[in-house]
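note to self: dont lose this again. the chain is below, predicted strucutre after it. 360 aa total, dont forget to put it in the shared folder this time
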Amino acid sequence: MTTVDVRLDPPYRVTIGAGALAQAAQHCAAYSKVALVADRRVIELHGSQLGDLSQAPCLEIVGGEAAKRFGPLAQVLDFFAAEALDRQSVVVTLGGGTIGDLGGLAASLYKRGIAVVHLPTTLLSQVDAAVGGKTAINLDAGKNLVGTFHQPSAVIADTATLSTLDAVDWRSGLGEVVKTAIIAGEEQLAFLEQSAALLRARDPRAIDEVVALCVRAKAAVVADDATERGPRRSLNLGHTFAHGIEHAASFDAVPHGLAVAVGLRLAVRASARVGLLEAPNLETRLVNLLVQLDLPTSLAELEALSTQDGSAAERVLDGMAHDKKGAVGTPEFVLPLRPGELRLGVPMERADLLEILRSV
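---
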């Protein structure tokens, strides 16, 4: 097992490795009551590995973006009340990022906040969503517009669960891996380039190393800026474009990590357009890496956009106007200068954005 400490107040630990789910029960032993919020499919596949925790009351939810709505949130809160959870209780989430977002938000609201432990079972949630305390649900107007910061008490990332991911979920997680490597720096990006073939083949050792790399990188950023007032905004690299893509495609039609993959290329191209890019070969390296990992590199490759009427570029641009990280109607961008160095909060003109979107 690999452990990474997230140095906040209070601190918490992320445990990474095959078979880690067996440790979940001991993390919950000190709480008065335990309640599980689990992806229905994941509890079928991996519930038997939870040991004593499998006896806890469990609310099963169908995962995906449809879970991140007010209806499911109310269902989870009613479940907590029905189980008579108190302020010394703990919520355990089992599943991907949408389940963690939903369960974490409910835990932050119930009785003004109770503890939560995340058991992420997708690559995307293990390398990104489960660490850092962000919780959210979606509105029709945009993604993740209703949420809180609520740090978990522990995160247990059992990499053996990733063997049951389908190809789309696996590729989606790799999009966030690429993002993290660019943020972390040249050494991490080079390591990912060298490991691409092993990751595409789902080599267990390579998976453990990459999950640990991403968690360390995110933990370092979160420790400096828990509530995204400054440096933590770097983690949004590619995401303003990605959320515009998801909005244009009605969220679930384009998996988040695939939107991020294209968003990363758009961010690099935007950086070049405004004269910030200091690594002229970064776009070539990025495209080569995305291809090696079987990730999309252009809007045209995202079928959910290309099959709709009208200009994909226009619809993505309209979707970006709802991004929560900028002023209303004025999206701001995280743009790379080189691996490991980013510029935050960069505004861009609509005409430039349209030209960039039409070029990729």
